[in-house]
Amino acid sequence: MYQRPRRNRKSAAIRGMVEETNLSVSHLIYPLFVAENPNEKSEIISMPGIFRWGTEKVLAEIEECIELGIQNFVLFPVVPEKYKTKRGEYSADENNFYLKVATEIKKRFPEIALMSDVALDPYSTDGHDGIVENGIILNDETLPVLANMSLAQAQAGFDIIGPSDMMDGRIRAIREILDDNSYDQTSIMAYSAKYASAFYGPFRDALDSTPKSGDKKSYQMNPANKKEAILEAILDVEEGADFLMVKPALSYLDVIHVLSENFVLPITAYNVSGEYAMVKAASEKGWLNYDATMQETLLSMRRAGANAILTYHAKDFAQLHKK
Ligand code: PBG
């Protein structure tokens, strides 16, 4: 035998030397759910260790995460029913608690990268990402709503706008309104290949945003398709995206890989709520080792080609590496 691959695995030093993929806290983006009631802290049952944070409590939580080395955050609003409407006007309302807390966060922690969520579902009585009429999602009528929401978020101080809605043409609509209002330095992270996935269940519990009727298959992608992800990515690049995202991550590593091989823009993987719940639940039962499994899944996303990873594991990962 001239080739014995095991020689390159014989000690930790050599294994370190030949390691092909690295993963560190700087790659991670931590999602936080914010609620209107300032002192709320309520755990999401299907996501152990993840909380809905009130607008006051979230500041302390971010501070704690920064001390652990986390620099990137994405905020999702838990919108009370009383603010929900068919067209989600609250999303750009000047009294919107989500916008106000973003301003406060950026004032207190100017160095972090703060990302938003753009879609109608948290604000909509229908629980869909676009405007619904007679059971149909109205694409073009939704675009100005998404654009106005994005502008309000840019004005509030978000560094990165995160459209998760999957309407056609929304990246262009958002880029145009931002540029027209001198927000040419506000970035867009496009949820380019977002699949109609069963793995979003715990997130919809967290936000109480399950669609009132129907499903999201007329706008989110079919899990059977990969070429279509390339089309979505081409459009998002042309329309002005700064990052391309694949969501979910674990069952879609091939999609992350094909985009990272074919596009110059950075690729983000969204390690979604259901993926987090699986690892947590199995480790709570003692069936998986949490730390090892969590790190292996995150590493696999980096190996597939993701630059950044949105993950609910970020704080656990940061804690583990602080030690
Ligand atoms: C909605 C949105 C969803 C997620 C992020 N933004 C749910 C959905 O599309 O129904 C899911 C994230 C997760 O599961 O962690 N615009």
Automatic annotation (TrEMBL):
Annotated keywords: Heme biosynthesis, Lyase, Magnesium, Metal-binding, Porphyrin biosynthesis
CDD domains for the chain: ALAD_PBGS_aspartate_rich
Gene Ontology biological process terms in this record: protoporphyrinogen IX biosynthetic process
EC number: 4.2.1.24
Class in the EC hierarchy, top level: lyase
Pathway: Porphyrin-containing compound metabolism; protoporphyrin-IX biosynthesis; coproporphyrinogen-III from 5-aminolevulinate: step 1/4
One GO molecular-function entry: porphobilinogen synthase activity
Catalytic reaction equation(s): 2 5-aminolevulinate = porphobilinogen + 2 H2O + H(+)
Origin: domain of life: Bacteria
Subunit comment: Homooctamer.
Family per similarity comment: Belongs to the ALAD family.
Listed name of the protein: Delta-aminolevulinic acid dehydratase
Organism encoding this protein: Brumimicrobium glaciale
